[in-house]
Design goal:
The protein is α+β, with helices and mostly antiparallel strands and about 100 residues long. Helix content is about 25%, strand content about 20%. The chain has two domains: about 30 residues; about 55 residues, no CATH class. Strands 1-2-3-4 form a four-stranded mixed β-sheet, with no helix packed on it.
Length: about 100
């Protein structure tokens, strides 16, 4: 017995099955999708100041630290003749937030 209740498709999606004529079409589409996801992932990392696989958020000037920065690590890029610094935002006993330099010995 055939079903007559159809699930509506998403807006912008074809209602009929898409037939692929060539495997190269699929590979090209998948490659474009992977590249786009990589770009979106990096934009997400930058906008949320995350440390992922050794990737530190980089800044050229410090911002005023807030509660949302607590625990975040950044790479403060030094200008010409100035060394780079790794900083972390911490809270002290007086409930004040500050960027502290991470010293590597």
């Amino acid at each position: 017995m055939a079903r007559n209740d159809k699930i509506p498709s998403e807006p912008g999606m074809p209602r009929e099955p898409v037939h692929v004529k060539d495997v190269a079409d699929v590979r090209g589409w998948i490659l474009a999708l992977v590249n786009r996801l990589n770009v979106l992932f990096r934009q997400f990392i930058d906008s949320h100041n995350l440390l992922v696989d050794g990737y530190l958020f980089q800044m050229t000037a410090l911002t005023t630290p807030t509660a949302t920065d607590r625990g975040r690590m950044i790479l403060l890029r030094g200008g010409t003749g100035t060394a780079d610094q790794v900083r972390v935002c911490i809270k002290d006993a007086a409930e004040a937030y500050s960027w502290k330099t991470v010293t590597i010995t």
